[in-house]
Amino acid sequence: MKPTVLIATTSSWFPTARLAMALADAGCTVDAVCPARHPLAKLGGMRRAYDYRGLTPLASFAHAISETKPDLIVPGDDLATLHLHRLHQREKRDGETAVLIERSLGKAESFPVVYERSKFIELAREEGIRAPKTEVIANVQNLKQWLDRMGFPTVLKSNGTSGGDGVRVIHSLEEAERAFQELQDPPLFARALKRALLDQNKTLLWPALLRRRSVVNAQEFVAGREATSAVACWQGTVLSSLHFEVLKKRDSAGPSSVLRLIENAEMSAAAEKMARRLKLSGLHGFDFMLEAHTENAHLIEINPRATQVGHLTLGPGRDLPAALCAAVSGEAVQVAPKVTENDTIALFPQEWIRDPESEFLQSGYHDVPWEEPELLRACLRKIRKQGALEFPQRPVQALAPVRLPRL
Predict the structure, then answer these.
(1) Rounded CA gap, 244 and 264, in Å?
(2) Segment 385-399, tens digit of pLDDT
(3) What separation in angstroms does the CA of 337 have from each of 238, 251, 310?
(4) What CA dihedral angle connects 334, 336, 338 and 343, to 10 degrees?
(5) Largest interatomic CA distance in the chain
(6) Distance between CA 198 and CA 165 in Å, rounded?
């Protein structure tokens, strides 16, 4: 019998739809709880999508769980994971929903750790994993004390953020104080309202209204190249993994746009140790810095949800959706054919937006979902809409070194 997977997402992030496609191809029945007009609704293999309401998020998730009765929940972004953690707290420990959430994400004892950056790094270092020193910064005085000890550059990160939104690399005291204030302050109501009206994304409204301040951490700077791992876990065991070196990013603090598939024993061992320590289940990501001159892999953070590479099927041991579906169903892994033999992956639409004339769109594997034309059209329409707001100097029509369908 096909296992049912509920994709839970609070944003319109395009890769979540790619993951749903891969899970359906792996033999799962896929439902979703997502914002209105999410690209997930354009998928041919989707059974049903339930509305995510940013002002009543836990009720949205609880309704979708009640209706779909899934075997597994896969969060597609950090806020979705946080909603599931809070829903678990609201339910009785032995209630069906609480049991399902632990089955999907891992033991409840790990829930606070994946959002507390300093605690996660502390556990990693206890496991003998190479990781930079990280501390919570409560105030400007703490910040100055840290800088006196560690010097510049240093890194400031706020809890509960992803995609580079809550990260700053600091080179001076003035810059540090300004960044600390920005990272700690709650979102501006005007920004939250704009996102709610234009993108139908209401996730910032409650933090803006309640004036919630973020916890800020300082992390030791590691000079080198960024790398990332995506893993499928089951009860603390890594079932399948992908390891990449980051070649290009949308911008210095944004998501990756070009990756190179690698084998790295230190990254693999670190992911396995942390999955075992936290008793993780489901899809997770780990970010690293590959130190210049030594190539040592320093673990810098965890992403407690599916990442943008989780849908890629790259052969035995490198097919996360197939491994996860097999774990849930109890059947043998049915690995899909490799999507490419090319180790360089240009992610769509990230690299296309970053540079429409990028060499990687031709030399690498350009991960365009040609098999789902409605999904592709929805993505292009969203880029066109955002382009009018965010990229006025670069109209979408110019982003065309590859064949694209008409809208």
Answers:
(1) 9
(2) 665 444 434 434 434
(3) 21, 32, 15
(4) -70
(5) 60
(6) 19
